[in-house]
Structure formats: C-alpha cells, structure tokens
Amino acid sequence: MDRQEAALTVDRIERLQRATRQRSRGKPWDLWFPLVLFGSLMLITPLIERAMGGLAVGVFWGVAGPIGTLACAWRFRRRELVIGLEIPPAPYLLVSLAIVIGALALGWIGGASGGELQWMGPLLAVSGGYVVFAWIDRLHGLGAVALALAVLVVILATSSLNDDTAAAIATLAYGGAFLSTGLFLKLKGPSGR
Q: Read out DSSP for 26-37?
C-alpha cells in the first residue's frame, strides 16, 4: 500500500468514525437509566424531608447525587465498550458535576438564608443541567420537559403555598416526570440498550 492509498484509508476511517459518533448521539432511549435513577431518588426525597427534615435531604443528596452520577458514568462506559464506540465524556461529566455542585451549593446557600431558595435552587440546577444535556444531544423534548419543570418551580414559589408543600409538589413533579420519561424511553428504545 502506497502513501496516498494509506492516507485515503485513514481519511475514510476518520469520516466513518465521525459519522458513527454523530449517529450515536441524540438517541433518547440511551437516557433512560439516569432519568429512572434520579427520578426515583427525587420521589423518595419528600419522604425523607417529612420523616427526618431538611438536613437529612442534604445528606441524602450529598451521597446519592455523586453515587448516582458515577453509576450513570459506569453504565455509559460499559455501553461504549459493548458497542465499540467511545463518545467524548467531558461534556457529560462537566454538566453532571455542575448539576451536583450547583444543586448542593444552592441548597446549602438557601438553607443558610431560609426561604424558597433552599428548595428552588437545587431543582433549577437540575433543570438547567438537563437543558444542557438536551442541547448537547439535540433532544428537544427533554429540553422542553426540563424547562416546563423549571417554570413549575417558579409558579409554585410565587404561589400562596407554604414552602414545604411547594417543595414537595415540585420534587414529586420532577421525580414523576423523569421516572415516567425514562421508563417510556426504555420501552421505546431498541432491546439490549
């Protein structure tokens, strides 16, 4: 094989890699796992709040958030190995880290200052992160769900409901929306994914 033929072969391989990577992005059924995992954790949150208080919720998410993020990273890495295609992880890791840090920081700041920020901040950080995930993978439906949930948080915060009730409704809405969306995507997606 001469240099020109080798260069053409390398160029074809690189184009195929780019095309395969592009086709692998934006597959909404791939997101079922984090949606189901974090949706389930969100559904548990009001129960923890009611039984043990806000500090317990902070501790719960301080542990569950990073562990859940690592579980998602492990699952996506395992999937990459199975299909033989590696997606650059940096954008997903940065957004996941921003969600965890943002939610914990805003919850802590809100706890120190009191009021709606304690429950609004973490939920808005989650919405913001999922809007970015939707933008990265060009999943307009997921972005619309995340934005609708953020609007719900603002509506609840400005309503006449007390903070505990508004926070519980918002958290249950997030959990229910994420869990049902994740289960729908799992059922919709190709088997084995």
A: T-GGGGHHHHHH
Burial of residue 56 (number of CB atoms within 10 Å: 0-12, 13-18, 19+):
middle
**142 vs 172, residue with greater confidence:** 172
> Is the predicted pLDDT of residue 189 greater than 80, yes or no?
no
Structure tokens of 28?
């909404």
Angstrom CA distances, 190 to 29, 37, 122, 154, stand at: 8, 19, 33, 36
Q: How far apart, in whole angstroms, are the C-alpha atoms of residue 69 and residue 41? A: 12
Tokens for 60, please give them.
Answer: 């719960």
Average pLDDT, the chain: 82
**Do 26 and 185 touch, CB atoms closer than 8 A?**
no
* Spatial distance between the Cα atoms of 19 and 193, rounded to a whole number of angstroms: 20
Q: Find the distance separating the first CA and the last CA of the chain, reported in whole Å.
A: 39
Mean of pLDDT values over 182-187: 85
Q: Which residue has the tokens 């806000």?
A: 54
Residues in CB range of 43: below 8 A, 6 or more apart: 171, 172, 175, 176, 179
- Measured from the Cβ of residue 58, the count of other Cβ atoms closer than 10 Å reads 18
Element (H, E) at 85: none
Q: Is 37 a residue whose pLDDT tops 50? A: yes
The answer to whether the beta carbons of residues 121 and 107 sit under 8 Å apart is yes
